[in-house]
Structures are given as structure tokens and as C-alpha cells.
Amino acid sequence: MVLRDVHKGRVLVIVLVIILFVAINILSTNLLTNAQIDLTEDRLYTLSEGTTSILEGLEEPIRLRFFFSESVATAYPTVMNYARRVRSLLKRYESLAGGKLTLEIIDPEPFSPAEDEAVAAGLKGATTATGETLYFGLAGSNSTDTERVIPYFTTERERFLEYDLTKMVYELAHPEKPVLGLISSLPLEFGPGGPMAAAQGQSQPYFIYEQLKDAFSLRPLGNIFDHIDDDVDVLLIAHPGELGEAELYAIDQYILGGGRALVFLDPYLESSSYMQAGVGGNLPSASTLGPLLAAWGVEMTGDKVIADRALAHRVSVPDETGSRKVTDYLVWLALGPAQLDDRDVVTADLETLNLATAGSLSAIDGATTRIEPLATSSDQSMLMDVGTVRFEQDPDQLLRGFEADGVVKVIGARITGPVASAFDGPPATDEGQDGDRPAHRNQSAGDINVILVADADMLEDRFWVQLQSFLGQRVAVPLADNGAFVINAVENLSGSSDLISLRSRGVSQRPFTLVEEIRREAEDRFAAEERRLQAKLDETEARLRELEEGSGDAAIMDQTQAEEIEAFRQEMLATRKELRDVQHQLRKDIEALGGWVKFINIALMPIIVSAVAFGLAAARRRRRIRLTG
To answer: What pairs with residue 412 in β-bridges?
Structure first.
């Protein structure tokens, strides 16, 4: 009787578990659509607060079309895994957008209307080894037919996947051009000839100015202003002239109020000397922002420039005989990927930045801001007096006075954090104007966001782009990524605070670092034995060749020689077998390690869960038997 009741109880428990399981699935499907557990080290599948804020605040309906040639990509596991991550994130975007974002997943099969749609949207297909075309991109549009596209999701930008997706959504939700305020003494609009050349119809605007004009709504502020409008999204300050107290105060208050700025200062502008006449004699050789840098917690070397032997440009100069030679010009620098921060979206994809007579940035003691380097020198550098460079431009003379100090120097940096005003209050103005002035800000509304570069020569065409004329049009051939750096920085700063806050994430393709470490240790253990056996084998083979060559005719070989040769042959065979055993043991250990890793990842957790379940069931059964007995 007791056993029958126990059996009925088990059946009832099983039925209740099944019902509970189905109910939980139904509830989770309908009520917990946004719930997830992300156990990855870099939180790859957890959206940042900035992305969540942008998605939840969408007012503009947005349509995203994810094109992925799944049937073609099945032979490429890396692409398949990355595509699953992209698709998973896009579905999260859709679920968080409150119905304002719709996602379409399209497989553009060859010669289908879907493939035509992918091509029309601007996607770039990758040709596989079998000649098929693999599409893996995203097209977005809004209600006003503004379009944005990611032509192909490359694994090189996987760290910035969330940033790229969120940037697309943000730009579709805010399709108007950002306003870029401009403060500069450089003749960006006219080129080296300045307004005089423009009056003669010979102006050649800086190429970076033309790029900025295409991408943003430019608003030059001139040299005299006492405020910066709130609708200015980003302030570009490029080698300013001597700004007065009113202008510096306006910049100070703009930054404290949440404005962002991209600033190019220079301890020595190389182009100042030969441009002087063309721009009206007002191009300063150095630039500064007075007390603002100290308020932002940073200082720049005002009388020294960086000389770097490892990054120096090679230049052609005349020698003593009148011919030309190629040598290092220490103060012209070519920064490579090793000197550019690959974790910041502004510099992550850049290959080269060309600079000339750049200064060095450093944090001030007690600063409340964070100085995050974006571009640096190498440790084969030193600080050289501006006067030495200005009056002694012979590369060989600079080389003779060079002595590296072993310190990496910061040339460009992102400055973030809370700051106080550089001023106690507004500057004195004409009577009657104070009533129109906004209230003085003593502290920043939040963290400021300023990108500061200690070089302005990098904006000039000759340092980064080669311009050619073709059928009456200027054709630009970039030699470095200076222009891309400026555009990236302004785009990044012109986004919302939520977008700017996004940083690089990890990648989904992670190596088994522990496995690799154990593998290296195993190789080290066997390497010494393998080298010993290989040396013994080489010695045995050499001795065997000597005996065989010295024995002459095999027919008259004496018994002693034959026995010695045979003994060496046996020793050689034994050594080879021992060497094979060592190599086999190494592979066996590595394979065993791999097997354990697979077992832990695949089988161990289910076994533990099952064991716990069986243990709980057994304990419950014993307790029920005790109660009924």
C-alpha cells in the first residue's frame, strides 16, 4: 500500500514538473523577452547603458535589414559565429526599442531579388574560394528615407560592433547634420595663399576643410565672440590666434555646459613662416588656450617639441657635394598602429598619422580629469627646444644633438571628467549687457569630453594627402590617416553622450589561453629531451657514415667493423624510436588536455546538474518513506 502511494506520488511529481516547465517557458517567452544571463568575460551580449538609453528614447521609426548569406557561410565557422552574435544583438535592439525599430533578416541567395536588394542598398559581397558571393551587412532607413549602411561586418571591427550598430541607429534617429563651430587662425577655407589668393581665384582650401564641410554644418566663429550657441554640437579649435578673455570665457562656459571640443594646439607651427604674407601677417607660430588647459587638468610643452628616432620621417636633403642624400628628420613623425590607441573608436582603424614638430601633453598633479592617450611617441624620443628646431633645420645637426630619454610622450589625448571653471566670473563688459548673459557656471554639468592634439601642422595637406588635377577636378590621394582622424573625432564627439560613452568590447573568437599556456609548458618539458635525442641521432648517423666510408669493399670488411656498423645502426633505430615516442607523448598530452576541456565544457555541467537532481530526488524519497513508514 505504501509503495503504491509512493509510485503515485512520483507520477504526480513528474506531471507537475512538466506542467511547471511548460508554464515557465510560456511566461519567459511573453514576459522575459529582454532577460538574459551573460557569462562572457567582456559582457559581449550585454548592451551598455548608453545603447539602452538611445533605443528606449527612439521617437523616429527605424527599419533595419540584416543581409546574411547563411547557406554560403556554412563552410566558414568564424563568419557563422560572428553572424550569430550580430543577429543576437540586433534582436536585442529590436526588443528594447519599444516597437520603434523593426528588424528584417534576409538571406540574399544568388540571382535572387534579395541579392538585388542587397546590392542596391550598398552592401559589398565577399567572393568565397568556390566563387560564390557572401553578403554580411546591414542597411538602415528612417521615415524620411535617410539611409545608412554597414557594407560588410569585418571581424577586425568586432570590438566596436555595438558602437557601429548604435551609431547607425542614432544617425537615423537624428538625420540632421551636426553643427560644427570653428575657431582657427589657419586659412582652412582658402589654403596657404589666404584671402588674397581667393580674391584672385586661386584659393586651394585645406582638403580636411572640404571633408568637414561635406559631413557637417560649419559655423565659423571668427576671432571675436563672447558666447557659443547651444546648438553647436562640437567646437573645432585649430591653432587659434591670441584669444581675449571674453573668447576664452565663452569656450570655458561652453565646455562646462556639456559642449564637446576637438582642439589642435602647436608649440611651433612650421607653416607659419611661409604662410605669413599670404594670410595677412596674423598667423601665430605657436598657439595656446591660456588658463583653460590647466582647468582641464592638462599641460602642453610650450617651448619644446618631440624628436623621435624610431618614428622619424626619411627626407631628402643636399649634402656637401651638392648632390642629395636621404636621412632622418627627427621632428617629423610617422605614427603607426603601435602608437595609436586601438581601444578608442577614433584611432582604432588608423594606420598612420603624420605630424610635424608636435608638442607633448601631460596631466597636472591633482587633476580631476582622466587623460586617455590616443596618440603617443615611441620611447626612442626626447624633448627638443623649439629654438633649436626653428633656427637649425639641418637633419644631421639635430641627429648629433639627439639623446633618447626612454619616455613615451603623449601627443593626442581624450580628456574626460569633472572640472571647475578657469574664471571666477564673467569678464567685465559694457554696461547693460550683463542681463543678457547666461548665469556663470562654476562647475561642469557632468564629465567634459575634449580631444586635444599637440600639433596643428597635421591638418595641412602636404603632410598627409597628395592632390592631383584630373579633368578640372581635384583628386585626393591620402598618404596618411590625418583626415580620417579628424572626421572620426568630430563624428564621435557630435553624437549623444550615450553614444560617446561606448567603448570597445571584447571579441567572440577567444583563444583558450590556459590551454595554450599548458601546451607551451608541455612542449618545454619535451623539448630538452627531444633536442638530446636529436643530437644523439645526428652523432650516430655521422659515425655510421664514417665507418661505412672507411670500410672500403664490403666483401673484405672484417668482422669487427661489421659488428660496429651494425651496433650503430641498431642504436640509430633505437634513438629514432625513442624520439618518435617523445613526440607522440607530446601530442598525446595535448590531445588529452583538449579532451578534458571538451569534457568540462560539454559533459561536466550536465553531469553535475543531473547528480544534484538525483541527489535531491533520493533525499526526498527517503524522507517520504520515513514519513509514511
So the answer is: 375, 453
Using only C-alpha atoms, the chain has a radius of gyration, in whole angstroms, of: 35
Q: Are residues 269 and 414 in the same domain?
A: yes
Q: Residue 544: which pLDDT band, with cuts at 50, 70 and 90?
A: low
CATH number for the domain that contains residue 164: 3.40.30.10
Phi, psi dihedral angles at 490 (to 5 degrees): -65, -40
- All three cell numbers of 239: 591653432
Q: The domain containing residue 145 runs over which residues? A: 49-172
pLDDT tens track for 323-371 = 787 888 999 999 999 999 998 989 988 999 999 999 999 999 999 999 9
Q: Compute the C-alpha angle 257/263/267, nearest 5°.
A: 135
The verdict on 416 and 365 lying in the same domain is yes
247 and 327 inside one domain: yes
Average pLDDT score, the chain: 81
CB atoms under 10 Å from CB of 208, counted, come to 22
Residue 516 CA to residue 385 CA, distance in Å, equals 49
* Integer CA distances (angstroms), 460 to 204, 205, 208, 463, 464, in order: 11, 10, 8, 6, 7
Instruction: Give the 3-state secondary structure percentages of the chain, helix then strand then coil, rounded to 5.
Output: 45, 20, 35
Residue 564 in any domain: the answer is yes
What Cα–Cα distance (Å) separates residue 7 from each residue in 4, 271, 463, 625, 627?
Answer: 5, 93, 86, 11, 15
E-strand ranges in 345-490 read: 353-356, 361-363, 370-376, 381-385, 410-417, 448-453, 465-470, 473-478
Distance CA 429, CA 110 (A): 70
Distances (CA, A) of 203 to 194, 195, 198, 457: 7, 8, 4, 19
Q: Are residues 452 and 598 in the same domain?
A: no
This prediction has a pTM of 0.69
Cell reading at 11: 507520477
Query: Does residue 32 form part of some domain?
Result: no
Cβ pair 369, 416 in contact under 8 A: yes
Alpha-carbon distance 453 to 265, whole Å? 6
Q: How many CB atoms lie within 10 A of CB 591?
A: 10
Specify the 3-state DSSP secondary structure of 137.
strand
